Amino acid sequence: HLQLVESGGGSVQPGESLRLSCAASGSTFDLYNIGWFRQAPGKEREGVACITTSGEISNYADSVKGRFIISRDNAKNTVYLQMNSLLPEDSAIYYCAAGPPLTGDRSMCVEQLIDYWGQGAQVTVSS
Q1: Among residues 29, 46, 21, which one has the least CA distance to residue 111?
Q2: How many Cα atoms within 13 Å fall on the side-chain side of residue 107?
Q3: What pLDDT shows up at residue 1?
Q4: CA atoms of 68 and 38, how far apart (whole Å)
Q5: What is the pLDDT of residues 30-62, one digit of tens each?
Q6: Cα–Cα distance list, 33 to 51, 84, 96 (Å)
């Protein structure tokens, strides 16, 4: 069993940065791909970024490529999402999620295959 706890959310102005953290409890953290998803009011949840068990492979939604960076530190059981050049449309609740260790680009962090979810962290980007 894995418990995921997000932190680092908050309110910022457009163009600013935030770093989200996802801390996991459980001895099997490094057996899971970890992803970040987000859900804005009135919209469906969408995948933002995903990283494989070793951290060697990551992928991103087109809307955040070049602005967000996902990383993980297995020694600390933590995954990070560095969010730069934030836009108002990035405002959402951000969820950390753990899924099976698949490496195909279309297989990584598929929402229907996610095993564990965090409780979410609010990110608001507004002037």
Answers
A1: 46
A2: 8
A3: 86
A4: 13
A5: 999 999 999 999 999 999 999 999 999 999 999
A6: 6, 23, 11
| Helix or strand run (H / E) with residue 124 | strand 121-125
The bridge status of strand 121-125 relative to strand 10-12 is parallel
HSE (CB half, 13 Å, CA atoms) of 91?
Answer: 12
Q: What's the pLDDT band for 107 if we cut at 50, 70, 90?
A: confident
Read off the tokens for 127.
């002037």
Q: How many angstroms separate the CA atoms of 115 and 77, rounded?
A: 16
- Helix, strand, coil in percent for the chain, rounding step 5: 10, 45, 45
Angstrom distance (rounded) from CA 63 to CA 48: 8
**Residue 32 structure tokens:** 């899971």
